[in-house]
Write a structure and sequence with these properties.
By secondary structure, the chain is an all-alpha fold. The protein is 80% helix and 0% strand. Helix 2 (26-41) runs antiparallel to helix 3 (45-63). The N and C termini lie far apart (51 Å).
Length: 212
């Protein structure tokens, strides 16, 4: 059985698509992003950034700034910039995405909520705990209301908030929230679900670090 494609094979595929369809064809751009993911895993963030910037520019020209595919490409680029330490530019891009997201995905769309979640992570990395918490709580309130408390995106956002609270010294609240997350995940997935086990492991680590 053949394994997953190698980086070299993916690059050959990009070259073939570029030659047959053009450098800005959607299939070519999607294949380029596949290469970028493989480069990311190797830590080659400068190369990833160059690819993602090309994809963003191409989608802007073809689809416009506010198209969902453009915004998703911008989100990937923002993540790369953040990983490179350029948090100010990452935040600027993510705020831009959040501003345009309702037109592309709706005020309460999943991708809109994920954009808020990503922005909160960058704001927190900048040390702005209050700002990050406000963004994340906005997303959680909407996710809970629209998709329910056991939805995967709701649970992910709650876990992120608990981790953020813990990191910034709000340990009692973080522990309580993580305990609630364990119970909700258990109801959604069962005792042996992978997400349940992961949430329990975080709670156990909090307990070892001094919580009751």
């Amino acid at each position: 059985m053949n394994g997953p494609p190698t980086l070299a094979e993916e690059r050959v595929r990009v070259d073939e698509l570029r030659g047959r369809l053009g450098a800005e064809h959607p299939d070519t751009l999607a294949a380029m992003l596949d290469v970028a993911e493989m480069l990311w895993a190797r830590g080659r963030l400068d190369d990833v950034r160059a690819i993602e910037e090309h994809v963003v520019d191409s989608r802007r020209r073809a689809l416009g700034e506010a198209h969902g595919d453009t915004l998703k490409a911008l989100g990937k680029l923002a993540t790369t910039l953040g990983a490179q330490g350029d948090l100010d530019e990452a935040r600027r891009l993510q705020e831009h995405i959040v501003a345009l997201a309702p037109a592309a995905w709706g005020e309460t769309g999943r991708d809109t909520m994920r954009a808020l979640n990503n922005l909160a992570g960058t704001v927190a990395a900048q040390g702005d705990f209050g700002g990050a918490r406000a963004v994340l709580e906005r997303a959680i309130e909407t996710l809970h209301r629209v998709f329910g408390e056991t939805d995967n995106d709701t649970l992910t956002a709650l876990g992120n908030l608990a981790a953020m609270l813990w990191q910034y010294g709000e340990r009692s609240e973080a522990y309580w929230l993580q305990a609630q997350l364990v119970e909700t995940t258990r109801r959604a997935e069962g005792e042996d679900g992978s997400a349940t086990r992961a949430a329990m492991a975080v709670l156990a680590a909090m307990h070892r670090d001094g919580m009751p």
